[in-house]
Amino acid sequence: MRRHPALREFSDDHHQGLVRARRLRRAAAGEGEEPVEAARAFVRFFREETEEHFEKEERVLLPVAEASGVSPREPDIRRMLAEHAELRRLVRRLEEEADAGNVRPETLREAGGLLEGHIRLEERRVFPMLELELPERALDELGRRVAEFGRSGGAQGGGSNP
Question: Which site from 33, 68, 112, 135 is most exposed, i.e. has the minimal number of CB atoms within 10 Å?
């Protein structure tokens, strides 16, 4: 799928997220990694990569969209933000369960399913809507701000790009 250059980095990030979601679901089914290891690996991935991706969406993508007239009350935008919060909650739960040495398959399955669904929402609904509704100047501004965010290391003052 062709994506506007300003949104391409977000889409590129999603590939690794889909791989991680599949690993969680496989661990929940008793395939692949042990549940505790799968949970710990996912928590590391989330903290090192996904959190910065979410911050770019929340602090760069959505403000540019709103400045161009996309309502933050748009149902897909609201769902996107609600899923960010839910994924953060599930990461905390996975971390607690891993620390206790008892990761529940249900938690792995829920986190993997939500992450995959979230990525599909953005790729199939949010990004196409933004490509359609944002004028080229706004998309160009988005591209500049995303690049600047990456150079500054995001809100964390460092870290890798997801």
Answer: 135
Q: 10 Å Cβ neighbour count for 40? A: 17
For residue 150, what are its two tokens? 């990456």
**Cα–Cα distance measured from residue 138 to residue 64, given in angstroms and rounded to the nearest whole number:** 7
Is-contact 134 68, C-beta < 8 A? yes
Distance CA 137, CA 143 (A): 10
> Residue 47 is inside which H or E element, if any?
none
In the structure encoding, which two tokens stand for residue 38, read together? 């799968």
Distance CA 108, CA 114 (A): 10
pTM, 2 dp? 0.90
pLDDT for 12-62, tens place per residue?
A: 999 999 999 999 999 999 998 999 999 999 999 999 999 999 999 999 999
